Amino acid sequence: MSFSFLIRRILGAIPLLFGISLVLFTIIHLAPGGPLDVYADNPSVSPEALEQIREAFGLDRPVPVQYVLWLRSMLVGDWGLSIRTGRPVLDEILTRLGPTMQLGGISMLLSFLVAVPLGIISAARRGSRTDSTVTLAAFAGISLPVFWSALLLQLVFSVWLGWLPSAGMKSIGDGSVSDRLLHLILPVTVLSLATIASWSRYIRSGMVDVLSQDYIRTAYAKGRREGSVILRHALRNAMIPAVTVIAIDFVTIISGAVITETVFAWPGIGRLFVESMNGRDYPMLMGLMMMGSVGVVAANIIADIVYATLDPRIRHG
Amino acid sequence: MTGPLLDIRDLVTEFRTEAGLLRAVKGVDLTIARGETLALVGESGSGKSVTSLSAMRLIPDRVGRIAGGEILFQGRDGRVRDLAQLDQRAMSDLRGSEIAMIFQEPMTSLNPAHRIGAQIAEAARLHEGLSAKAARARAIEMLRLVEIPEPERRAEAYPHQLSGGMRQRVMIASALVCNPSLLIADEPTTALDSTVQLQILVLLKRLQEEFRMGILFITHNLGVVAEIADRVAVMYGGRIVEDAPVDRILEAPRHPYTKGLLGSVPRTDHAARASGQRERLVQIPGSMVDPLRPPPGCDFEPRCAWSGPACRAAVPPLEATGPEGHARCIRWKEIA
User: Fold this and answer.
1) Over the stretch B51-85, which tens digit does the pLDDT of each residue have?
2) Cβ separation of A221 and B100 shorter than 8 Å?
3) How far, CA to CA in Å, does B129 sit from each of A14, B76, B91, B211?
4) Which domain holds residue A240?
5) Which of A211, A215, A315 best tests the B interface by mutation, with the highest count of B CBs <10 A?
6) Is residue A16 part of a domain?
7) Interface predicted TM-score of the whole assembly (ipTM), two decimals
8) Which residues is B80 bridged to in the sheet?
9) Which residues is B26 bridged to in the sheet?
10) C-beta of residue A280 within 8 angstroms of C-beta of residue A31
11) B6-98+182-327: which CATH number, 2.60.120.10, 3.40.50.300, 3.30.70.3340, 3.30.870.10?
């Protein structure tokens, strides 16, 4: 894969992102209600004041005009103002990005470190009791809804045992490293469980596939032992199918683990999204969703680069 | 060193299947001397590949096991060891260094993600602890040995950049890198064009003389047998049905199955053409014995033109047909 291919991929993403923005803009405006409905029943906000706000945010214009206005300012780097808080959208997002990256990053790293060995062991001992146990646990992990496992863990470890804080990023008046770490344990666990479960399946199936290849038998015939056959000959080829899934999951989590962040009152992107959705905060929603879309497109390009690194046939083909 | 290089005695290999244990090899005896090529011949399903994989101990426990017999191998140190009893660790020390194997599919037997040079030198790095630099030099030397042009450049290539014949040369180079005393070649030319087949056979013969290896050459192609073998063992239904020196087998087969195999090979030599005789190809009727329901007597009896009631009674013993040959047929004397 050449540099020019990369450039072409990136240029190709531009019209795609325009299309996405158009669809997103249409969809959020199709949702019933609007940003000013919160004030509708508030007697201290006069109809005249409402009309003024509507004009100030351009909400009185037709939707296509609103889209063009939004697009024009977006192109010059102005993400607009949040209708809900009045603060710049970009500032709000950046404030929330830190906690999300912290939670998501740690979860992703943990998931990777656990899922890869689990998948390998499961594949290398396929049909064994270990494999059945891992498989059962993985399906349980995939099937359990996140909100349920989150609530259950809160109940056990915070309410009954009192070992861990139930929500938030830090205790009020504390904020030491250990306090922050304690607050991370439950959300990271919840977020990782589902990813570990699904990634380990992808890695297992990739591994099972590769282990039955002829070149694995060749490696044994050369005198390699099982461990080094797996690490040197199988793993690299087995990771290829898992790459896309991992890249996309990474973006999904970075662009807001909505449920986990909500249950654990984590001040991240996911919660910002829920709050903005409830308030029909159009500029904020567009900002968040466009960020996610750029992330997904970027993740796909990165996955392509990783493929090429792992597989010389793609690199030279 | 005296005694055979490889001496397989009464080997039995079983596979686990959903229908129960399947006996793929039912008591096979084979010997190979240093510098000798034994061709193991048979149809698909005759158990010839399983015999070779058993000797390499490359049948995963999950799939099957060696249920009986001995695989006696005389190592470089002169010690004779039973490979069937060796633990995996000791076995992997022998694999790639003293016993090497090449496979049927050069297209898939090389790792697509590794460079040719690294794959050739792999066994040498593993068994001789070669440095990266020495390994590279050895790989280039091996590429030259198997007559690949521009070895320095090819060492950096990936398998997908090479043709099938080239890849089989690379496989041979990677198998011979530690100078093994026994090479097991499982249909190494089957997947190649016939012109390339011949080149590979000539190469193998040359290397065998240089390295003085014993070769267990598995094939179903009797043309290949004539080209490379010193002795031939014919397998059918998991048993050796005939063995003899190559000329004897090709000229005077004693087992109906061997005779059938020879009859199904088109003759293209000048003698046949000059005499104007276009012999009809003779097919062996019927199909390979079902390993889950073998007949009570001779495995080949249902397809055999010479079959009689005595053939159905019991599995015939392997009888000596001369000073160096054996056949598993009670009527071998009538077959000439």
Assistant:
1) 999 999 999 888 899 999 999 999 999 899 999 99
2) yes
3) 52, 18, 18, 21
4) 97-316
5) A215
6) no
7) 0.90
8) B74
9) B12
10) yes
11) 3.40.50.300
